[in-house]
Structures are given as structure tokens and as C-alpha cells.
Fold these 3 entries.
Entry 1:
Amino acid sequence: MPLTDGFKATMDAAIADPKSTAYDQLIKDQLAAYQTRFAATPGFPTVDWKLFKALLLVESGGPAGRVWTGKVMQIGNTGDPAYQVLISGAEHSKLIMDPQLVTDLRTGNIADARLNIRAAMAYMFTRAAQTTQQLFIDNPALLVYIVKRGDSLSSIAIKSSTTIQDLANCNPKATGAIHPGDKLSYHKSHMGYAISGWLPITADFLANRYNGGGDPNYAEKLNYVLAKLP
């Protein structure tokens, strides 16, 4: 379905409005901070700040829209899943958010436009991140546990603040059977999730993974605005 003349006129007016630059620096600063934090992760996507600005204008309707100084990205609206994802730490969003954002979401006002934008960016990167469960060594010091009657690798892991995976790595023969008196090496360790890759952040990604696919013209809307931005 082609974009309506009304949508185009609204976006053209929004782009031409000098107030549309109000959040440009915030967007740039936030994207730079994510780049700094996650550049070393596999496949971290380069995000054109103007693509996010296009997202902002589409979501808000621009400076003339009634939400321009409020829930500008619609985060926190009734039925919006993003706010609850971030507040609860679901979808491994805790790996994405910096500590200040976590605090601000719990104590601040999500209707503050700048916080709304920061939350939207966190949700965008949460939806783009791919995670896998990994072994984390909490202390490199190698310790020794002496097996007692009734022990299993699972019970030893719990008692020793380590993991079955670390016990198996340090004691390959122990994966078959263990016996009282056996000495097992281990590290203090835990299993957790880490970022293993990223989906490319494009207009199609935002339409399907951020917006949720509810608007079949969403990607086209973003591309229309992006092409018009100076």
C-alpha cells in the first residue's frame, strides 16, 4: 500500500521544523556510547543516527505532535511491551542497559522525552542482540574439592560455588564417575548469558523487531523520512 499524502505532508513538515533537531545530539551521544561499550562484541552493527531520527519522527509525528516533549517514542504507553521488557530485565536487556539507565527507568519519569529516547534505544539494541549461555570464571585461582560419599557433580557445583561445566573442563575423567576421596580441581564460576552476535539494524529490522510488524508500511515510512533528512 502506498504511503498516504497525509503521512508525507506530516513528515515533510516535521523535517522542515527547526525544532526537529532538539534530540539530534542526544541520539548521536547515545549511539556513540553503545559503540564504545559493544564495539568488541561480534558483529556489532553500525547504526546511522539519521535512521534512529527517522524512527523518532515516525513514532512521534514530529515537533507538532502532542508527544514531542513526552513519550516521544511511545515507550511506556498502554500495551507497549518495551517498557516492561526493560523494567523487568527480560530478553537479556540487562546486558544492554548501562547502570544509569536502569536506575533512571526505576526512579525517573518515562514520560520525559529524553528518558523515553534512551529507553527506545536500549530496546532497539536488546532486540538486535543475540545471546548464548556461557561459562564465566569468577576467580582464576584453581581450588580442590575432595569428593564425599553421596556427592555428584551437581551437588559439588552448588556447594563449591562453581558449575558442572567448570568441573567437567578441569576434570575430564570425572564426567564418567566420581568416587569418595577423588580430588577435583575447580574455579569459582557461574553460567550466564553473553552477547554472541547482532542482527543488522535497518529499516526492515525496525519494522519487524522494534515495531513488531503491525504496520505493513513501517519500513517504507522510515525509508521515506530517512531519504528526506538533510
Entry 2:
Amino acid sequence: MTISALLLATASVFAASHAGVPTGKDAAKKETVAPLHTSSITADMADGEVRKVDKENKKMTIKHGEIKNLDMPGMTMVFQIRDTSLLETFKAGDKVKFFAEKLDGGFVVTGMQLAK
């Protein structure tokens, strides 16, 4: 009796101490990130106009409006381009929506699309 009472008490303490800890199945669910909705991504993008494309240096000059995520007012500036296919896709004069981040000490365009 004493051993079974001890086992029962230990099991209760163990269960209580691990309450809310995800099991293997639950942990996998927590790791899953919901896909972002395109409309929310587009809303966070800045408006701009491509002024110059510098394929050799993987940069683009963009006259842009406010970039909210960088707390940056509108201006014209040179951005590094992460996805070099953008340098082939866009040309000077294109009206665009883009997303930029501060990475490795520089401002980098991480996404871009033609403005509608």
C-alpha cells in the first residue's frame, strides 16, 4: 500500500508540474506559424519610384514615401538589393511597393512589386 500511495502521489506531482507543457504532438503545432496574409504585407510596404538600377553593385535608387517599419520619412536613397532578380525585373521609372529592412548596417530591399 505504501509503495502504490507513493507512486500515485509522485504521478500527481509530476502531472501538476508539467501542466501546460506541450506534448510532442502539441509542440509541433506550436512550431507552426500561420501564413501571413498578402493584404497585411502590402499594407506595410512603402510606395516608391525606381530612379536607377545598378546591376553591377546590386543596388537600386528609389524615391520613396514613408517607410513605417524603419521610422523613415520619404526621400530618395540607394538601397542594397537582396534578391538580384529584382535588378532584372524593375527599371527606372517603375512605380513600386517595396519592403526594406536594416540588415548588416545597410538598408536592404527584401521585397518589391509593381504598384497597382
Entry 3:
Amino acid sequence: MSAARLRTLPLSVSGILVGSSYAFFENTFNLFLFIIALLTTVSYQVLSNFANDYGDGIKGADDNRSGPKRAVQSGLISRSSMKNAIIFLSVISIILTLYLVILAFGFFTKYFLFFVGLGGLAIFAAIKYTVGKFAYGYFGLGDFFVFVFFGIISVLGSNFLYGSSLNWFLLNPALTLGLLSVGVLNLNNMRDLESDDKSGKKTLAVFMGKKTAKVYHFILISAAIFLILTFQINLEIKSVVLNALLLLNVLGLAIHLFQVYNITNPLDYDKFLKIIALHAFFYSTIISLYFFKIIV
């Protein structure tokens, strides 16, 4: 359960919530499809967390880390057991992906191969973040892949499953969730900057250095705040409650920027990972309440 890193799950399902709720708004929603989509994205996330634990563990990147101890590095789970768990979860993810795509488009139809390929790429990316000789997380590419998969593909891709069309209207929340997700990763990388640098794990934070990584974080969250406010204006929400909740979310993110700016001890970054992940989940929930017509 510790290796699964359950605190990351709200972030992984945020895009699915937004994309699926907008399908409901457009009368193309399918409850069973929604459930399978959630299960699929959770399987990707847990697979990624297990692979990350395994990859960093065998490469020594977790030996002197500042954050919580990892299962393989600490010896709680053996390398062989974690490897078996990764293989098992990969099979589960493949089965769920195939079932989801067939459910959405049918067998070998127009979009079948494309989305099977997209699912395969998601599984590959989940594993290759830290596993293997050319793990992209060790070359500063983690931020890019998180932005694409947790933002663009999660929102636009999940919505496409229902109506087989791209709704560019959702690009704004897709970018927002992508930025917030990268913000979570950047906090993690700033916390582990020194240990990552010593172990040869060249994250973007390592490449940029402490001061620039903070500026980068400020840009990420500030851009997300701008997009949230812009989307709120475009939606023309009449509900006082929803508007207040969105503004409260923005206020929380703004306060977060000041808190992060004043951090001097890398260990203090850790408590803000969950906060930003919850802000993203809170934002997606508010938007989903509007699209699901629960509060209008």
C-alpha cells in the first residue's frame, strides 16, 4: 500500500473526471465506460509508482533521498517481488486498456488501433520513467510526459472515448491539470534535488538548480491560476457556490506560492505535494459538478 502511493491517485483521476463529466454535459456519457476508464488510469498510476520504486531502488537514487523511504530501497519489498508486481500490473493494465477501447469504439474499428497504441504508450511511459538504461526520468523529461499524460491525454483523450470527437473547449482544463501535475513533480524533484544529483538522476530541477527550479514552480502554478480564472469566465457559471469554490481554490494556490517561496529546508517541500494534488482534484471536482449538472 505504501509503494502504491495512494496520495497520487486523486491527481491521476482528475482528468478523467473532467473529460467524462463534459461527456455527460453533451449527452454522450456512459457510466460503465466511466468506471472502466477510472480503473484503467488507476492501474497506470499504481504501475508507474511501483516501477518508480523499483527503478530508483536498483539504481541507488533512493539511498539518500529526503522524502519518505521507498519499499525496494528500504528492503520492505524485494527486487524480485516488485518486479513480479510490475509484470502483473502491466498485464492488468493491458487487459483494462483493451476492454476500455473495445467498449468505446468496438473491435478493430476506426479508432481502435490508435487508442490501443496510446494505451500501450501510457504503460511504456509508466515503466520507463525510472526503469531501464535510458529511463527518461533521468534525463529531465519527466515533466514533459507528466504534462502530456496527466493533462492533455487524460482530459481530451477520456472525453474522446464517449463521443469520438475532440472538444477543444476542454483544452483549458487539460492544460491546467497538466501544469498542476508538473507542479507536484517539481516539488518532489526540488525536495530530492541533492540526492538525485549525487545519484546521477538528472531531473529538470537538477538541471535548473534550486533558485531556477523555484522560479519554474512559480511559473507553473501562476499559469494554472490564470487558466482557472479564464475558464471560469468562459463558463459563465451562475452558481454562487461554484464560483466561490473556484476562487477559494485559486486563493489556496496563491498562498501556496508564498509558502514555497519561503522554504529553505528541502524536506519542507514534501507536505506540499499532497496539497497541490488535492488542489488539482478539487478543481476537477468543481468543474465536474457543473458539467454533471449537480450544481448549476
